[in-house]
Design goal:
The protein is an alpha/beta fold and about 500 residues long. It contains 17 helices and 21 strands. Bound molecules: nicotinamide-adenine-dinucleotide. The site of nicotinamide-adenine-dinucleotide (NAD) has 30 residues, from helix 9 and helix 10.
Length: about 500
């Protein structure tokens, strides 16, 4: 067992300084590929969260260095931070792999694009404009101003730590807010590494703060009366609790939650493309992505053929060390996740599903403590069974058959979620028809798992509230003030009769 003294040590980042928690509690982060702890973090309590919020509130007061910056200069700081993250991308990506076990090539690619969120929204900072309203009362000038909300709390999960943090932090900062980030307890290190770059980028102290800890730290941030808005990315159970708590104090929320997204393959699809899209959708990140294509709905005439192709490919996926470039699927991030995957597979078996590929843990030479699971395909799944309705967040594909377009759309829509969907067809009329009927925030036709900074992303139904990415993500962090100015010298007094 690794000794505490050997573990890397990270502190809270509050008001521009690395500080210890008041209570002195700490927790360790474990590398899922080895099962060994590697770093130790402060376990923030309510007092630490209060200190971070106070720092963010002080940085937001009119006349503060942050509020005194022009919007153009504010964007400039974001450009500088983007450059610094690019410089450190490889190192930070390796830290993320140590924490969440995802493939180095995936985390490296994410660190490569995460700065694009800062440059895109940094570029929008000085394009936030109000309007002039042509009132009936022609002597009155009425205009609107778009203003920041204040302190924004950002709570993120472990699966794509830097990228998901940037999706919330970049528009929040571009709009002029200050921020307190609560990373996942599984993946705090990369966010603290980025915090270490803030001063060099020129951000005044207190504009961005990071408090590490578990659910209690998140709850303290959510409950804090000086936090104007919570931007939450995570599971729907936590999302519901957060929306209720923030709603009770009339705060604001953006929620990016889970999914049970379907890849729908029609018999007029290019099968090689559909096969590649389904595999990438569910196995590329070991299913540990909100947009995992965890259900495959296959048209009856091609059902057995495509299932056989998927089986062959799934069985050839190389499971192993996420740092090894030859590895195609890494470990599951936590022991609790592994147990959840196993429970779902046994309940699917009991519900009559056919295990076509995988179905068990995987062992990897030299990594006996690793949390590995085989890529798993379950066929003939009933859409109302748990494995088709609940987010598993692991490498488990539920496959079902449909007879026609109506049935495909009905099956795809018959879950509480509505994050994304894939449609595979070469029939252009069908492509548009089905895309418009799907209850999902993103529909990909003949591609899957594409997300970028300038295209709006978010959930329908239980998959979320609000949008990240694209111009409309800025609206989530702004409020509108309507200013009325009487220009006429004549005094308007309703109690003085005009003769
Ligand atoms: P989670 O909901 O357990 O935790 C997410 C974060 O919330 C963590 O930082 C956690 O400490 C904190 N938290 C948990 N309960 C809380 C509470 N009651 N109050 C305040 N904070 C609380 O999720 P996870 O297991 O870390 O991540 C996986 C989930 O995230 C999946 O459901 C996945 O679909 C979702 N996700 C969604 C998106 C999206 O953009 N829609 C992207 C990635 C992941």
């Amino acid at each position: 067992m690794t000794q505490t003294a050997e573990l890397e040590r990270y502190r809270l980042y509050i008001d521009g300084a690395e500080v210890s928690s008041d209570g002195g509690e700490t927790f360790a982060s474990t590398n899922p590929a080895t099962g060994e702890p590697w770093a130790r973090f402060e376990d923030a309590g309510a007092e630490d969260v209060d200190r971070a919020v106070a720092a963010a509130a002080a940085a937001f007061v009119p006349g503060s260095p942050w509020r005194s910056l022009s919007a153009t200069r504010r964007g400039g700081l974001m450009f500088k931070l983007a450059d610094l993250i690019r410089e450190h991308a490889e190192r930070i990506a390796a830290i993320e792999v140590r924490e969440n076990g995802k493939l180095m090539r995936e985390m490296h690619a994410q660190l490569g694009v995460a700065p694009d969120w800062l440059t895109y929204f940094g570029g929008l900072a000085d394009k936030i404009e109000g309007r002039t309203i042509p009132l009936d009362r022609t002597s009155v000038l009425n205009y609107t101003q778009r203003e920041p909300l204040g302190v924004v709390g950002v709570i993120v999960p472990w699966n794509s730590p830097t990228m998901l943090t940037m999706m919330a932090v970049a528009p929040a900062l571009a709009a002029g807010n200050t921020v307190v980030i609560k990373p996942s307890e599984e993946t705090s290190a990369s966010i603290l590494e980025i915090a270490r770059l803030l001063e060099q980028a020129g951000f005044p102290p207190g504009v961005v703060n990071v408090v590490t800890g578990g659910r209690a730290a998140g709850e303290a941030l959510v409950a804090h009366p000086r936090v104007a808005k919570i931007s939450f990315t995570g599971g729907d159970a936590a999302g519901r609790a957060i929306a209720s708590a923030v709603g009770a104090r009339l705060g604001r929320v953006t929620l990016e939650l889970g999914g049970k997204s379907a890849n729908i393959v029609f018999d007029d699809a290019q099968l090689e493309a559909a096969e590649a899209g389904i595999l990438a959708g569910i196995f590329a990140a070991g299913g540990q992505t909100c947009i995992a294509g965890s259900r495959a709905l296959i048209h009856a005439p091609i059902y057995e053929e495509l299932l056989e192709r998927l089986r062959r490919r799934a069985e050839s996926i190389v499971v192993g060390d996420p740092m090894d470039p030859a590895t195609q699927m890494g470990p599951v991030a936590t022991a609790a996740q592994l147990a959840k995957i196993e429970a779902h597979i046994s309940s699917a078996r009991a519900d009559g599903a056919r295990v076509v590929a995988g179905g068990a843990r995987a062992s990897v030479d030299g990594l006996s403590g690793g949390l590995f699971h085989q890529p798993t395909i379950l066929a003939d799944v009933a859409n109302d069974s748990a494995v088709a309705q609940e987010e598993i967040f692991g490498p488990v594909l539920a496959v079902m058959r449909f007879e026609d377009e109506d049935e495909a759309v009905a099956l795809a829509n018959a879950t509480p979620y509505g994050l994304a969907a894939g449609v595979w067809t070469l029939n252009v009329k069908r492509a548009h028809r089905v895309a418009s009927r799907l209850e999902a925030g993103t529909v990909w036709v003949n591609l899957y798992r594409a997300v970028t900074f300038n295209s709006p992303f978010g959930g329908y139904k239980a998959s979320g509230i609000g949008r990240v990415n694209g111009i409309e993500a800025l609206d989530e962090f702004l409020q509108t003030k309507s200013v009325w100015i009487e220009l006429d010298e004549a005094i308007q007094d309703p109690f003085v009769l005009k003769v």
